[in-house]
């Protein structure tokens, strides 16, 4: 069954295949709950101009809930195969550093084809919002959904991982008794286990906990998270550099092929996951606030 929604861009139609959302097994970023947490918190921190623009750009069936479509970009690979390379960055093994000029390219070597380049591209597209002479050349609804998702992705440490293991996708591990790969541990397992152990499997309680940290123990860091140097609208390279550092310090550390990851790994890594979710939410809101303030 297909559900078709005509977007306000006129002739542009986004086709959502509902069944795909329920059974598609692969992901290209935080899992569904991770992206939901990021987008739900971000939308609550929008200024009036950004909130109005997001409401305008979201399809009617989303009922002004950005988080309901925050994983959309993971589910359009079949339709937009070119978008797969835009979810991550491969960096040289063991250097634990990121360079846009060195690393932001796809497997064919095309420059700018990485999550950082995608964030810059879709930010530029959204800056045409409200400018009738230029905005119609872009699908700004899709630009909003891609940008919201990719700002989440660039904060997932293993989306700026090592080339040889594809960001932990080829490192087989066990999460407690379940066989998985290291990348999936960071996409889903840590968040799911936290929900089960601390939030009664209720993602809304997880959202509240991250929000409380943003307004509480992280509050003195929020302005630094929001700021971009040189008055840029977005600054994903800073986020990517943080992610490869976190990948080396937390995700890859003490993990080898076949490792069994249990409480020690979970409890020591959960604070890093919480922090990256909070930073992603703050930065998504800040980016959208700057974009639509300038529109």
Distinctive features:
single chain; P1 Nuclease; two-stranded antiparallel ribbon; 12 helices; 7 strands; disordered N terminus; nucleic acid binding
In short:
This protein is mainly alpha-helical and 295 residues long. The protein has helices at 18-23, 32-44, 48-57, 100-103, 115-126, 132-135, 140-153, 182-198, 203-215, 222-226, 236-251, 263-294; strands at 2-6, 13-17, 89-91, 160-162, 172-175, 178-181, 260-261.
Describe the structure in your own words.
This protein is mostly helical. The chain has a single domain (28-294), classed as P1 Nuclease, CATH 1.10.575. 49% of the residues lie in helices and 9% in strands. It has helices at residues 18-23, 32-44, 48-57, 100-103, 115-126, 132-135, 140-153, 182-198, 203-215, 222-226, 236-251, 263-294, and strands at 2-6, 13-17, 89-91, 160-162, 172-175, 178-181, 260-261. Strands 6-5-7 form a 3-stranded mixed beta sheet. Helix 2 (32-44) packs across helix 9 (203-215) and helix 11 (236-251) runs antiparallel to helix 12 (263-294). The longest helix has 32 residues, at 263-294. It is globular.
């Amino acid at each position: 069954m297909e559900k078709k929604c005509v977007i306000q861009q006129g002739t542009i139609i986004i086709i959502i295949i509902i069944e795909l959302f329920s059974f598609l097994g692969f992901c290209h970023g935080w899992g569904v709950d991770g992206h939901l947490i990021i987008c739900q918190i971000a939308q609550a921190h929008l200024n009036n101009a950004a909130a109005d623009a997001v409401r305008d750009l979201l399809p009617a069936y989303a009922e002004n809930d950005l988080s309901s479509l925050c994983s959309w970009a993971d589910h359009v690979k079949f339709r937009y195969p070119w978008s797969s390379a835009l979810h991550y960055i491969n960096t040289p093994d063991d250097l634990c550093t990121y360079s846009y000029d060195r690393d932001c390219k796809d497997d064919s070597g095309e420059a700018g084809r990485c999550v950082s380049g995608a964030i810059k591209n879709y930010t530029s597209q959204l800056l045409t919002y409200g400018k009738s002479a230029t905005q119609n050349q872009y699908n700004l609804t899709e630009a909003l959904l891609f940008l919201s998702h990719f700002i989440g992705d660039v904060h997932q440490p293993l989306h700026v991982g090592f080339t040889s293991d594809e960001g932990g996708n080829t490192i087989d591990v066990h999460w407690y008794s379940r066989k998985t790969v290291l990348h999936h541990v960071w996409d889903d397992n840590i968040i799911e286990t936290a929900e089960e152990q601390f939030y009664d499997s209720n993602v809304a309680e997880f959202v509240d906990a991250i929000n409380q940290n943003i307004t509480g123990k992280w509050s003195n860091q929020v302005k630094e998270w929001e700021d971009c140097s040189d008055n840029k609208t977005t600054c994903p390279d800073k986020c990517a550099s943080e992610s490869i550092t976190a990948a080396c310090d937390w995700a890859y550390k003490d993990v080898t092929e076949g490792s069994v990851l249990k409480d020690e790994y979970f409890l020591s890594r959960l604070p890093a996951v919480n922090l990256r979710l909070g930073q992603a939410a703050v930065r998504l809101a800040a980016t959208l606030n700057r974009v639509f303030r300038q529109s």
